[in-house]
Amino acid sequence: MAAKIADEEDLMEFDSDPYLTPDSTMTQPSPSSQSSPSHNQSSISEPVTEEETQYSLPTLKETPSPKASVPEVEEVGVGQESDEELLPQTGDHPVRSISERKKARKMVFSSWIAQHAATVTKERVREIVENTEEPFLSIRNLMSKQESNVIISDPREYQVELFEKAKQQNIIAVLDTGSGKTLIAVLLLRYMLDRELENRQLRGYKPKTSFFLVDCVTLVFQQFAVLECNLDQNIERFCGEMGCDLWSKSVWQQLFKDNMVVVCTAEILYQCLMHSFISLDEINLLIFDEAHHAKKNHAYARIMKDFYMLELNLEKRPKVFGMTASPVDAKQDVVEAAKQLEAMLDCQIATAADLSLLRMSVSRPKESAITYKRLRPAYLTPLCARLKETFEDLESVRRVLAFSMRATSELGEWCADHVWRIALKEEEARKIERKTERLYITASEGRFSGALDAELDRIRKAQQFVDRWNFLETPNASLPNNISSKVSLLIQYLQLIFRKSSSTRCIIFVKRRYTARLLAEMFSRIDIPNLKLGLLIGTRPGDAGDLKISFRQQVLTLRDFKEGSINCLFATSIAEEGLDIPDCNVIVRFDLYATLIQYIQSRGRARHAESQYIHMLEENNMLHIQALRDVRSGEDVMRRFCEALPADRLLQGNDCNLESVLAKEKSMRRYTEPETGATLTYTSSLVVLAHYVSCLEYLDKPKTSATTSTNGHETPAAASTNQPQHERNGIMLQPNYFMTTENKRFICEVVLPEQAPIRSAVGRPASTKAIAKRSAAFEMCIQLRKGDHLDGNLISTRRRFIPANANAMLAVNLKKRTEYGAKLKPRLWEDSRGCFPKKLYLTVFKLAEPENLLRPSQPLALVTRTPLPNFPPINLHLPLDKTSQALSISITSCLNVTESIVSTLNNFTRCIWRDIYAKTFEDNIPQMSYWFAPILKDVVIDNHSAVPASLIDWDVLRYTDLHNFENPIKWTVNMPDTELEDRFVVDPGQGARRFYSAKVNSTLRPNDQVPCQDLQGNVSMESILEFSRNYKRSPSEKRSPKWEEDPNQPVVQAHLISHRRNWLDSWNDSTSKDPEIPCYICPQRMHISSLPIPVVAMGYLLSAIIHRIESHLITLEACDLFGLTVRSDLALEAMTKDSDNTEEHRSEQIHVQRGMGKNYERLEFIGDCFLKMATSIPIYATQQDHDEFQYHVARMEMICNKNLLETALKLGLPEYIRDRGMTRTGFYPQGIKLLVGKGITPTSAAQKHSLGDKTIADVCEALIGAALLSYHDTKDMDMAVKAVSKMVSNKVHAVNKWSEYWPLYVKPPWQLATATASQLDLAAQIERKHKYHFRYPRLLRSAFMHPSYPFLYEKVPSYQRLEFLGDALLDMACINFLYHRHPDKDPQWLTEHKARSDV
């Protein structure tokens, strides 16, 4: 809300401040500080001076509008005090001392800063929307992105002219489609909003709202997008699909308070006025889009007749502005229709004074008529004849049959036959069956009979008959009657216009959806160059086979049309009025228009320069010729009528017309609630009554899970008579109207369901059935109000009960990523450090296929302070595309050690770090987490009986200890050549260079040229000596005498070891597949390692092995957070995310971390399924008084990503998730200082990682899957059940064992009651089929009980609750089978095949 300023004195104080602009004083008063005008006060209660009425046309360069410049402060909510209320009050106004005025200025400035920050945020949001791919945007953002260009830039002269007229009086702007009528509305809204702000702030008037009314949901989003980017004030949009009927008066009033402009369907405003959520004097402007709809009982007309015209105080009436391309939308006299529209909207029609300017601004297409040969009479194709003969009495078949016969004439046999493939394909047949079943049961009061089964069976047979029919796949013009002359002409024309270019944009208008679908299907099978087809039809469901097109699909289709991926649309009337369609250059009226406005609006789509508008006429068809003449003459009459309007024309004669408009209404009663002003009319009574009856389906409040019976014992609520209301009666509740006649007049009785407190009411006699029906509804509403069953706003006092969190935001943001700490080392290392150990434990690692390493290797042991668990084999990728598993054996017996032994192990370990990995660590035994030890070759190891000391190769340890850091091995002149053979040689100057020596080559000297020319790296090749000492030195250092070496030292034949970083990943680099490169070196500057080559060969693999072992330990610690005991391989798989979009199956993975093994996606898939099943069972067992909808809500509260995320964050799970592959820098012993080499510092970025909310929730589900599969062999699901309880953290699921589910279920009395003969017979039939004996036939009967079947007939609830439980169990059974049968398939494949299994 804006800062609150009480009076003009204070405004003057603000104006005197040099740091505040005049606009900054225009702040919105709070309701508490406004001077509330009396009830009969007009919206503008004092004369407005000429200076005040001066209004310059807004442009983009003008001073920002009030919203952009008015400082705002935080909104004052319930329980808060406004800043002004905190000031001391004296009389009617606050005390205005100097200090208080300074405080107010400070408040304004602070709020301006806050608003500026909000503006920046909004700009950032817009930037994100602009950069996001459109398929991922909401409808609101899709529309705003398409309407991102501000339309108010340079208004044309005729637009300014009409805007000025609209300021002075109510007008209906009649302009062609595409001429910018909405621009005029935006200008008028800006003007009215400025006036409104002045009235609120300077005069203290109560707030008013401007309404932009539209005829359909489509236009709500479209016009909202246009207004949102052109108005600075708050704006909101509403339509029936948003569930507005559930909103209370307080909700609506808050919405009107928060928004100065509302875009909504007219029905929304009509109901708000009817229920007195808003009154007419709280509205300052009504804009009617497509104003020609204002007639009869349309919501436009009802608003005007029921509220506007009955407000006798003209000053309380809002300004009215209508927009239309033509005031006529039916076949009637143009002038008479225009006068009626003027009377209905209390406006005068206005158009551009100089129509030539309009024609210059809006391109008119070149119109032409093309004729096709006379069509053949309609007839039956062989397929239609067979279907008519057998199935004509079926309603669903009869409708399609009528179209198919018509199509033989208009479209041809190909379309006439193919419509059956559309209307009776398998999924459409199911829809027809459901609709037939619903209508039949409703008509027969819910009783099943054999007749219904017979009819459903015939529908299935019709569908099967169509499936077996041999259809001609491709249309063939050479076959007689296969394509009609009308379609043939269209084919020729499209071939002509698309032959040269694909830049053509064409819309082909047809009357029926079937026609659009069939033509689109036909042309997709005809080869026309550059033709890219699309389909644009309405969103409302129609007959069998109709596509259910969403508004989002319409928007995306139009986007493709705009961008050119579609260049030809087959469209129904939806493309004439409603959607904003890009300019076209070809419009084809395949089916001619029925009214003048259809002609004008469809022609308005051809706004492109040099566009064409084609009328398709049948040869010698006088009806077609007359239709063309009628629209042209009608437009000419309309144009002359508008041109003849005088400039200063008043609404003369409208009073008389107004009387005629209201004449029919006078015979219809109306009721106005004295306290609230809510109004009931004949028309609105139908809506009020329907809403009241729908509320009978819901309980006022949820029942508790148990009730007390007469004997004092607790029984389940479902066992009592408090059965859910909709389950007790089954059929969807609605009022029933029964019509009779008396003295040639109609009398209607309305009967409500048995739950209603008043069952029936009879209306007054009426001349028509429609009025009689309204009279009965009106009478019933009056009785309900008298009995307090309707409240003062004519809303049912029996509110709809919606379960808690039914509309809660339970999803997580798929794009949101948060930075968390990343656990690099297991807690085990840290917990065991700090002293000299007395006991150590060995975990031996050896290769399963050691020959694949290409060099002899020796097993190594990881020596730890505490015993380690057994780890699964680790897959290693060795040179030359070979692999081997590293096997781990954890020795259970401990190794008793002395300080000397530990020191020896420490020297050996530091030697491995230094010589193999070029890292030197401080000598700090108490802080060492682990050590390495060589293991004897070919020793047989039994992890239970092995003695650790007998496994260690003590000779290697002693030799390494002898040549420790203080006594390294170096070449001397007296060293025999044999000491240089089969050694591991390290280049101390360049850490990456390591060599395996072979033998001394006595034929070569140090200064000889290097004989091998295929060495890698940037090395000097001048001589063997230069190559040997090619560590990183400057050229001057290399020439320095101190670097001179013995020219007689031997030359050793060796192999340069390739620099392999990640043994967990395959060798994808072809240049590094050769693991050893022949070379020659001189030993003087080299260090000769004390490590034997077999130890070195295995030591190179330690980085990968230890990385994987640490990952296992970290993920097992994550399982400990939840108290879960899980197999280590499954724990690691559940916690592994190997790319930024792991969850996007079959998509190209982004930032893939190689060598991480399996990721969590499969475990998450089966874990999600088990989670669904596990939570469904206790919900079903403990909440027997709830319905299926409440079940879904309760389950969603537990299994939603938001709940799983919250649980994970409480326990700190994100830091345990593995999302990075192995790196050599990450291979280090935690706790000791790194002296030489590369490692991870405490401030390194590696200690943090960014994770999406969805990823964390998925990992929770994967852990459930891991807990389930860890005990798959034993069929034990207790650990998985425990995992679910930990993850959902909900009292409904408080079990930790599978066996604890059963005691939760208490059998309700209806299940235990004696079964009837029919129920026993049903059980017997099922047992013969499935060989399973049902102990409770009534429970089985419930599984066959349709929701529309009344509970009272058999006292058995419908199958919906059992279906909820059965669906979860079936999912689990299918997924479990597929998961284990196909261990290599991804979740996408499993999902697809699960769906087939469900079918």
UniProtKB/TrEMBL annotation:
SMART domains: DEXDc (SM00487), HELICc (SM00490), RIBOc (SM00535). GO terms for biological process: defense response to virus; regulation of defense response to virus; siRNA processing. InterPro entries: Dicer_dimer_sf, Dicer_dimerisation, Helicase/UvrB_N, Helicase_ATP-bd, Helicase_C-like, P-loop_NTPase, RNase_III_dom, RNase_III_sf. The keyword Ribosomal protein does not apply. Residues 162-345 form the Helicase ATP-binding domain. Keywords: Antiviral defense, Antiviral protein, ATP-binding, Helicase, Hydrolase, Magnesium, Manganese, Metal-binding, Nucleotide-binding, Repeat, RNA-binding. Residues 685-804 form the Dicer dsRNA-binding fold domain. Residues 1-98, 704-729 are annotated as: Disordered. Belongs to the helicase family. Dicer subfamily. Residues 704-724 have a biased composition (Polar residues). GO terms for molecular function: ATP binding; DNA binding; helicase activity; metal ion binding; ribonuclease III activity; RNA binding. Residues 1122-1272, 1323-1395 form the RNase III domain. Residues 7-16 have a biased composition (Acidic residues). This is Dicer-like protein 1. Residues 489-669 form the Helicase C-terminal domain. Its cofactor is Mg(2+); Mn(2+). Residues 21-47 have a biased composition (Low complexity).
